[in-house]
Design a protein that fits this description.
Elements: H1 3-29, H2 40-55, H3 68-77, H4 80-89, H5 102-123, H6 130-146, H7 152-167, H8 175-194, H9 200-215, H10 238-262, H11 266-279, H12 284-298, H13 309-323, H14 329-340, H15 344-357, H16 362-371, H17 374-385, H18 393-398
Helix pairs in contact: 1-2, 1-3, 1-4, 2-4, 3-5, 4-5, 5-6, 6-7, 6-8, 7-8, 8-9, 8-10, 9-10, 10-11, 11-12, 12-13, 12-14, 13-14, 14-15, 15-16
């Protein structure tokens, strides 16, 4: 091929990649009818695919080879990194950045911002759109505040910056979208403050404020978004509207419940956690939080009003384990449950299963330490110490 032909063919590939990124999400929601919610598993599959695509290096098509500079420029011009960033983040309807490390998420966002700049130069479109600033700031706040190794102070600054942008008169986002972004930032700030004893009341206030706002809006309401923006917004589809609303209702109740637990209001916590599961039945985090609560109540002397915690804890932990077999938490806590029942064989099996998923899991590691001899424990400790993890101290202390 001549150089010009190579360029045209590659640009066509980039245009197709941009369209495919949109279609992956649209195809997931197009067949959802009535009052049904979009499948969490289907949305997670889209996020996983986008995360993989956004972090892999460009592969040439057959014998077609182009320079790295042309590849990066063409990909950016068609907004591919930006669209991939939104799907990899998925923070408006899933736990943000579900398949990314903090380094990967930062790289994806940097490429997305470069994409906006390149598109501005190539097509003459606005390069300083507040809508795109809002989305990218929110996604960045989620990664800094929610992923291991993030900067909490930066997350707080970004959430507040988004709230300020949403309050400006000239921002081209309103109605339902603005409401959801506002509640998302309130919940983000609440999560940041939750682990600071001096700001616990602020965390609960943010969560309750978000819950009140969400209770007053109609998830089927459509909003006006600047048509010049090159991205797919989750509020263009009624099924995703409902999913986003249910997800944030669920997160609000979980956050209020956690604040109640930290202030020993266990009856209130149980009600909020139960309602969170009802808001979004397929959400792993909600199911696991309720199961963890009942396990905690088994060992709490102030839990007299919560009956049948033993049986409920086991049932709910098994349900959470089946919901997502790639998560180590339910297996680790099932190990704790069986150990409390003096069933060391099943406890050991559960702890080992948890460590097979996450070799550095501290609850599972300490559980095995109580059951196994040091010689039997050594292989698990060696695997854990090879992990770049802030929670593998239990393994180092055993070696």
């Amino acid at each position: 091929y001549a150089d010009e032909e190579k360029k045209e063919i590659f640009q066509l590939e980039c245009a197709l990649a941009s369209t495919k990124c949109r279609m992956d999400l649209e195809n997931t929601v197009c067949d959802v009818d009535g009052d049904k919610l979009v499948s969490t598993d289907s949305l997670a599959a889209v996020a996983r695919k986008a995360s993989l695509a956004a972090t892999k290096t460009h592969q040439p098509i057959g014998d077609l080879k182009v320079s790295s500079s042309l590849a990066l420029t063409s990909i950016a011009q068609f907004g591919v990194p930006y669209l991939q960033a939104l799907s990899a983040w998925s923070g408006m309807y899933l736990t943000p950045w579900p398949f990314c490390t903090i380094g990967q998420a930062r790289t994806i966002l940097r490429n997305a911002r470069d994409s906006i700049t390149a598109a501005g130069k190539a097509w003459g479109r606005p390069t300083n759109s507040k809508i795109e600033q809002i989305f990218l700031h929110t996604a960045e706040a989620d990664l800094e505040g929610g992923l291991v190794g993030g900067f909490v102070i930066e997350a707080e600054r970004l959430y507040k910056r988004v709230l300020d942008l949403l309050a400006e008169d000239d921002v081209s986002v309103e109605g339902y979208a603005a409401t959801m972004l506002k509640t998302h930032c309130l919940l983000g700030l609440g999560k940041l403050y939750l682990y600071d004893a001096e700001r616990l009341s602020e965390a609960e206030a943010f969560a309750r404020n978000a819950l009140d706002i969400l209770s007053s809006v109609d998830p089927t309401q459509r909003n006006c978004i600047d048509s010049q923006s090159i991205c797919f917004y989750p509020w263009n589809n009624s099924a995703l509207n409902k999913m986003s609303h249910s997800f944030h209702m669920c997160m609000s109740r979980q956050l209020v419940a956690e604040a109640c637990i930290r202030s020993s209001r266990y009856d209130d916590a149980k009600l909020f956690l139960s309602d969170a599961v009802k808001d979004l039945p397929g959400n792993f985090d909600a199911a696991f939080a309720l199961a963890s609560f009942h396990l905690r109540m088994m060992f709490d002397s102030d839990a007299d009003s919560c009956e049948n915690n033993d049986a409920l804890a086991r049932t709910l932990l098994l349900k959470a384990a089946k919901m997502d077999t790639t998560r180590s938490g339910p297996f680790a806590l099932l190990g704790v449950w069986y150990e409390s029942q003096n069933d060391e064989a099943r406890a050991k099996g559960c702890y080992q299963k948890a460590l097979a998923i996450d070799p550095s899991h501290p609850v599972a590691g300490r559980g095995l330490k109580r059951i196994l001899s040091l010689d039997e424990l050594q292989p698990f400790c060696e695997r854990a110490t090879k992990q770049n993890s802030p929670v593998n101290g239990w393994a180092w202390r055993c070696l």
